[in-house]
Design brief:
Layout: H1 2-14, E1 18-22, H2 47-50, H3 53-58, H4 60-75, H5 81-91, E2 97-100, H6 106-110, E3 115-117, E4 120-126, E5 133-135, H7 136-145, E6 159-162, H8 171-183, E7 186-190, H9 202-208, E8 212-216, E9 229-231, H10 235-245
Helix pairs in contact: 1-10, 5-10, 8-9
Bound molecules: adenosine-5-diphosphoribose (APR).
Length: 247
């Protein structure tokens, strides 16, 4: 393990600025299941029935049943060694920003300051009818009393402020993520299958602009061939070892 870590540390030092792109694989060690590994969420739930905006409009209560289960896990999760290592590397000026596909807010809770949440977050839920925005604790409280939280102003069922399939990503987030990837000397992708666009387009942005790609992931990705370094290790242990090597 230490040779690849030394090589990755050298790349982080030499190819600044380093931007980190994270996926669900950095949160599994916090007890949050990922999506596409054999024990992932999509092995149990059909994303077409629970994670598309059409599914939500068709049957919001059914989609909230899915999200209520997820919220239970998400609100009790704590940042893990991988999140903490990335926050430490940012403090040392070795990581410029974290672009995350995760909606769990764990990077910020670990201390990362510059976090670009390209798939939104569970921090708030919004009313699609009147625009009312409601914080997570109010949503969790509402879910204890009803199968779905409804808007206090107009009564419509609220939608979690996470990007569902068929929805546009938050424009400012994906534009900033693309800009960061274009200017990155190194894009370090951790814990993602890199299968979902437009985020999966970020590695190409970096490499075609002259930067390099490194991947830390247990599973394979379509961009493994593009990576200067690929480590098939655990996110937490690998990022902690990287931070140690760069101390
Ligand atoms: N260490 C390293 N890799 C891990 C770990 C771990 N502890 N746990 C899981 N992995 C790997 C899995 O093997 C898998 O290759 O992380 C990857 C997670 O990939 P996905 O489950 O596809 O998650 P992600 O890439 O974030 O999905 C992107 O898809 O469904 C949508 O909106 C959802 O943001 C999500 C997007």
């Amino acid at each position: 393990m230490d040779e690849p870590i030394r090589a990755l540390a050298a790349l982080v030092r030499e190819r600044q600025p380093c931007v980190v792109l994270t996926g669900a694989g950095v949160s599994t060690e916090s007890g949050i299941p990922d999506f596409r590994s054999p024990t992932g969420i999509w092995a149990e739930y059909d994303p077409m029935e629970y994670a598309t905006i059409d599914a939500f409009r068709r049957d919001p209560v059914k989609v909230w049943e899915f999200y209520a289960l997820r919220f239970e896990v998400l609100v009790s999760a704590e940042p893990n060694a991988g999140h903490l290592a990335l926050a430490e590397l940012e403090r040392r000026g070795l990581v410029q920003a974290v672009v995350t596909q995760n909606i769990d807010g764990l990077h910020e809770r670990a201390g990362s300051r510059d976090v670009v949440e390209v798939h939104g977050s569970i921090r708030t839920a919004s009313c699609l009818e009147c625009g009312e925005q409601v914080p997570l604790d109010a949503v969790v409280a509402a879910l204890r009393a009803a199968p779905a939280p409804s808007c206090s102003r107009c009564g419509a069922i609220l939608k979690p402020d996470v990007v569902m399939f068929g929805e546009m990503l938050p424009v400012d987030a994906i534009e900033r993520a693309t800009e960061l990837a274009r200017r990155a000397g190194l894009l370090l992708a951790v814990g993602s299958t890199l299968e979902v666009y437009p985020v999966a387009g970020l590695p190409e942005e970096t490499v075609s602009a002259g930067g390099e790609l490194a991947i830390v992931n247990r599973g394979s990705t379509p961009f493994d061939g593009l990576a200067s370094i690929r480590i098939a290790g655990g996110a937490g242990e690998t990022l902690a070892a990287l931070a140690e090597e760069l101390a």
